[in-house]
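Continuing the series of single-chain predictions for the mutant panel. This is the parent chain; the variants come on the following pages.
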Amino acid sequence: MDYGDYLDLDRLLSAQHPRSQPVHPDELLFIVQHQTTELWFTLVLHELTAVRDLLLDDEVRRARKSLARVKHIFRTLTEQWSVLATLTPSEYAQFRGALGSASGLQSHQYRTIEFVLGNKDRRALSRYEPDSRAHAQLSAALAAPSVYDAFLGHLARLGHAVPAHLLERDVTQPWTESDDLVPVLAGIYGDTDEHWSAYATCEDLVDLEDAVQVWRFRHLRTVQRTIGFKSGTGGSSGVSFLQRALDVTFFPELYAVRSRIGA
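Parent structure:
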């Protein structure tokens, strides 16, 4: 066993296959950027699944460690956009046609991350039916509690009055904001000494959401810089789709409660 064997570098470093003819020199940047992102997504899913399972077992300290790691991964992913942003519209246009119908919207790993964080949509499964592995991964994430579901269950077991309808909800449905959860969170924020663990975990979740939202924003700005307002590959609407994604909030009550603190 050596370094290359352990990391399977022969396979990893031979997985970049530019499709443009003649090969455009900047296509390699585009491929490496997206392959690297998918590798990070693999780790994000590993960590978020652990967070969910640890919260279900009330292992909150270990869950917080993984939440911190995911936050830093998304900060790294955000910085990666600055590399892709060196690709000018003229350069991208010379090999964009080689992508065919391929689109980042087809990333089953990112869609699974959204599911694990609570943004679920059963209709999305049909897009991945040709890929049995991706479909199985998404189906499992759809059927499982989200990170937020697991956290609210943990709060309930600590004695916080989380509304029963949230604890018993159909976890295959997307999370929708619940006004009656906000007073529960306000009680936690109102006495941080008494509820320090719950309070700190709330802030960890806010950190995570902020990191994801900043990544989304940099994605939008990079796409806008590269293709303007043209349609994206794979039939996506490009910038307008990414703009709508910024309105998706994973933990809305953790933001709503801020209006009550100190009021």
